[in-house]
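pasting for ref
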Amino acid sequence: MTINHSQKAGELFAKGYNCSQAVFGAFSDLTGVDEKTAFMISSSFGGGMGRMREICGAVSGAFMVLGALFGYAEHEDKAKSELYAMVRDFAERFRNENGSIVCRELLAQAGIPKDTSHEPEKRTPEYYKKRPCREYVEIAARILDEMIGEKGYTE
């Protein structure tokens, strides 16, 4: 059965996982990283890296997926160059659809006031209504699936 990664990422975000966890965790079937470990590894990247509102967590999670699938373990300039090209391609696609890859800029577009406190917001129905983040994790997962398919990746 093929997993709809975009849908799964959205569902994970709706369950309370941060943007990075939602994206990286949604691809555990391909990365070989069990969900619990994926959630732990990606947990510090939520809120634009610890709520600093830097690089969007969905983007960070996507970068982790790309590294897990196409990364390198030995220092190889060719492998590094190929991975970095994929990272840049993903960032360009995401930016073209959403206007930015920076959390604070994405939230500002949605009218979310700047808040860089380390305290996470409570996940209430109102939170989910005003947040564009579920859409961003779904978009990130869709772009990843497109890129993975274009590379002809097979498990």
